[in-house]
Design a protein that fits this description.
184 residues; alpha+beta; Outer Surface Protein A, domain 3; 4-stranded antiparallel beta sheet; 3-stranded antiparallel beta sheet; 2 helices; 13 strands; 37% strand; elongated
């Protein structure tokens, strides 16, 4: 039995979960999400302890792997509508900065042009400073993908550490060239 798949998903107060065939809809105070689950997985809602269970039909390899995955995806949906997910990115480099312009994130990171990234639906950005970007949203996948897209504009380089990195990311630094001075 899947260790993750067999655990029930607690539904907090103020969150509504509805299952319509293969579509799971979760509505909470911070937003609303829906996802299609695999038709082999059955979702049962218990009203007494107010929890949700994912049940698999048999122990085939495909169903075992879908069991834990489906449970994790639904659990992330329930968690996201209660407290949104957040990724923080730091911008390192002289003159590198980010500017929020309506529904676009404009990055000035050493190119001759300003890089403009459109914010996807359900994802918002906050800029506490010009070099710190907070990506916030209910959908864990959308937040992570947009943060990865922002980082991919200028990944951190190993010699001076310039670029865009996650807040908790460690960048291994290289020494660089040594001067071949008086050896002749």
């Amino acid at each position: 039995m899947s260790r993750i798949g067999k655990q029930p998903i607690p539904i907090p107060a103020g969150v509504e979960v509805s299952v319509d065939g293969v579509v799971v809809r979760v509505k909470g105070p911070k937003g609303e999400l829906s996802r299609d689950v695999h038709p082999a997985m059955a979702i049962e809602i218990d009203d007494d302890p107010n929890q949700l269970r994912v049940v698999r039909p048999d122990d085939s390899r495909a169903n075992r792997s879908l069991h834990g995955l489906t449970r994790s995806l639904i659990s992330n949906m329930v968690e996201g509508v209660v407290s949104p997910f957040e990724k923080q990115l730091e911008i390192h480099g002289v003159g590198y900065q980010a500017v929020l312009d309506g529904n676009n994130l404009n990055l000035s990171v050493g190119f001759a042009h300003m890089v403009k990234l459109a914010l996807p639906d359900g994802v918002s950005c906050e800029l506490p400073s010009a070099t710190l970007v907070k990506v916030i949203g209910c959908d864990k996948q959308a937040v992570g993908q947009f943060a990865a897209n922002v980082r991919a504009v200028r990944p951190p380089e190993p010699y001076k550490g310039k670029g865009i990195r996650y807040r908790d990311e460690y960048v291994r630094r290289k020494q660089g060239k040594a001067f071949a001075g008086a050896g002749g």
